[in-house]
């Protein structure tokens, strides 16, 4: 049995979808969620069980009969990694594949989120089980946080629009995870996963505009606006961690491209254009004649400007390694 945690999230869900093509005969998939009914509705035919990192009996039940497990932990407080690993060891699990973050390799990254990921990796390394670490850059799907403003206003708002990030398609992360969960040869390895190129928010906006065939406007948030937007959704320590991550991106710390996806899967990492094309419906606005481009509009369907007064509120719930 393969257990997937975080199945209702971005990468966990893609792992569940990627596993069937790689499962050996007789090996099934089980998903663990705080709301198993929701997970069951998302993945018909897949066994869904209740489980919570703070509830040891639920972990013991979810891990019964499990051979390999995909581990996703998100809380910055508590000891979720240790709780899961302890239960996995007691249940006889052979291997744990953990979703970590590329930032753990950056000596300049000392924010709360990165420290938590490093601590989780150390737990796994010392647990006595086989382990594999996946360290992705930011998810391309983070740009879905712009979808509402693109649909309503044809506008993308983000902090540091010219800062590059070698963001990665969650489907590529999931394909690597599925291989690590079902193949031999991955134990004791840590894989950094990126897309094929580093892109800025302005360049992503341009790509979306070209796919939509309409001009999109980019408005760069000020640091104060970004802090206000984040504070509406996260506690202060997380706000500062996310802003520190953005500063590292602006300094170029997230621009490095790694070829691991290609090496492990046999195909090049998907581009942002690939991801956006497959999710373009989320960004497609209803026709609005008032927002149609003028007859002499530029052929490049994106306009870039800087705003110091635009409302904050986009790009705030994201994976930011």
Blueprint (SSEs and pairs):
Layout: E1 2-5, H1 10-18, E2 29-33, H2 36-42, E3 47-50, H3 56-63, E4 68-71, H4 80-91, E5 95-99, H5 112-125, E6 130-136, H6 147-153, E7 155-159, H7 170-182, E8 189-193, H8 201-212, E9 216-221, H9 223-231, H10 236-250, H11 260-265, H12 272-278, E10 302-306
Parallel strand pairs: 1-2, 1-4, 2-3, 4-5, 5-6, 6-8, 7-9, 9-10
Helix pairs in contact: 1-7, 3-4, 4-5, 8-12, 9-10
Describe what is shown at a glance.
The chain is α/β, with parallel strands linked by helices and 321 residues long. The chain is 37% helix and 16% strand.
End-to-end Cα distance: 30 Å
Rounded average pLDDT = 90
The arrangement of helices and strands along the chain is: EHEHEHEHEHEHEHEHEHHHHE
Number of DSSP helical runs: 12
Backbone structural class: alpha/beta
Order of adjacent strands in the largest pleated sheet: 3-2-1-4-5-6-8
* CA-atom Rg in angstroms: 20 Å
Give the overall shape, derived from the CA principal axes: globular
Give the number of DSSP strands.
10
The percentage helix is 25-40%
Low-confidence stretches: 294-318
What composes the largest sheet? 7 strands, parallel
* Proportion of beta-strand residues: 15-25%
Features:
single chain, alpha/beta, seven-stranded parallel sheet, 16% strand
Describe the structure.
This protein has 321 residues and is an alpha/beta fold. It is built from twelve helices and ten strands. It has helices spanning 10-18, 36-42, 56-63, 80-91, 112-125, 147-153, 170-182, 201-212, 223-231, 236-250, 260-265, 272-278; strands at 2-5, 29-33, 47-50, 68-71, 95-99, 130-136, 155-159, 189-193, 216-221, 302-306. A seven-stranded parallel β-sheet has the order 3-2-1-4-5-6-8, sandwiched between helices. A three-stranded parallel β-sheet has the order 7-9-10. Strand 1, helix 1 (10-18) and strand 2 (29-33) form a beta-alpha-beta unit. Helix 1 (10-18) crosses helix 7. It is globular and about 55 Å long. Mean pLDDT is 90; it is low at 294-318.
């Amino acid at each position: 049995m393969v257990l997937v945690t975080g199945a209702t999230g971005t990468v966990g869900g893609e792992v569940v979808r990627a596993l069937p093509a790689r499962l050996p005969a007789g090996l099934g998939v089980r998903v663990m969620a705080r709301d198993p009914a929701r997970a069951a509705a998302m993945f018909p035919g897949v066994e869904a069980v209740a489980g919570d990192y703070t509830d040891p009996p639920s972990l013991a039940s979810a891990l019964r009969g499990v051979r390999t497990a995909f581990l996703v932990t998100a809380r910055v407080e508590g000891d979720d990694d240790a709780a899961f690993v302890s239960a996995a060891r007691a249940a006889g699990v052979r291997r744990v594949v953990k979703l970590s973050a590329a930032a753990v390799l950056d000596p300049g990254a000392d924010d709360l989120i990165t420290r938590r990921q490093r601590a989780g990796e150390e737990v796994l390394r010392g647990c006595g089980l086989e382990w594999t670490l996946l360290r992705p850059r930011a998810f391309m799907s983070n740009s879905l946080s712009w979808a509402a403003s693109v649909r309503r206003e044809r506008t993308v708002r983000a902090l540091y629009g010219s800062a590059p990030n070698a963001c990665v398609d969650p489907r590529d992360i999931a394909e690597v995870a599925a291989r690590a969960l079902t193949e031999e040869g991955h134990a004791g390895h840590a894989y950094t996963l990126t897309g094929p190129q580093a892109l800025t928010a302005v360049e992503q906006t341009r790509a979306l505009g070209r796919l939509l065939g309409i001009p999109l406007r980019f408005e760069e948030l000020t640091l104060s606006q970004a802090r206000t937007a984040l504070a509406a959704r996260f506690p202060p320590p997380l706000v500062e961690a996310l802003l520190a991550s953005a500063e590292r991106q602006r300094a170029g710390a997230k621009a490095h491209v790694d070829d691991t996806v290609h090496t492990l899967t046999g195909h090049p990492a998907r581009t942002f254009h690939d991801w956006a094309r497959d999710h373009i419906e989320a960004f497609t606005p209803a026709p609005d004649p008032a927002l149609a481009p003028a007859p002499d509009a530029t052929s490049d369907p994106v306009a870039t400007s800087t705003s110091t007064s635009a409302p904050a509120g986009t790009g705030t719930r994201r994976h930011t390694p």
